[in-house]
Design brief:
The protein has about 120 residues and is an alpha+beta fold. It is built from 2 helices and 9 strands. The protein has helices spanning about 5-20, 35-40; strands at about 45-50, 50-55, 60, 65, 70-75, 75-80, 85, 90-95, 110. The chain has a 3-stranded antiparallel β-sheet with strand order 7-8-9, with no helix packed on it. Strands 1-2 form a two-stranded antiparallel ribbon. A hairpin with a 2-residue loop joins strand 1 (about 45-50) and strand 2. It is elongated and about 75 Å long. The N and C termini lie far apart (about 75 Å).
Length: about 120
């Protein structure tokens, strides 16, 4: 049987972490590395190269942290880099998890080349 002190210590750690997370972590507006355990415990985060970012506000695109609203052009179309990709040899915009070589689907957009 575990000593009473260990049980109390584990219970205290659990209660403190619940208390910290119940107050909500501040949003990480600029991409910064979390400096406290509070952010590590309570804030969803991902890593892009050597930077941490909040996936609710940013994504990792071409090894850079960019806002979710960032757009690029693909021929005469505009696509959202966090959710879509440009298949340059066909000028087609596909969802980010689709293969550019796969057959065209209803989610795809065909774009024209800009001269």
């Amino acid at each position: 049987m575990a000593p009473r002190g260990c049980i109390v210590a584990v219970f205290a750690i659990f209660c403190i972490s619940r208390l910290l997370c119940s107050h909500g972590a501040p949003a990480l507006s600029p991409p910064v590395a979390p400096m406290t355990p509070y952010l590590m415990l309570c804030q969803p985060h991902k890593r892009c190269g050597d930077k941490f970012y909040d996936p609710l506000q940013h994504c990792c695109y071409d090894d850079a942290v960019v806002p979710l609203a960032r757009t690029q052009t693909c021929g005469n179309c505009t696509f959202r880099v966090c959710f879509e990709q440009c298949c340059p040899w066909t000028f087609m915009v596909k969802l980010i998890n689709q293969n550019c070589d796969s057959a065209r689907t209803s989610d795809d957009r065909l774009c024209r080349s800009v001269s």
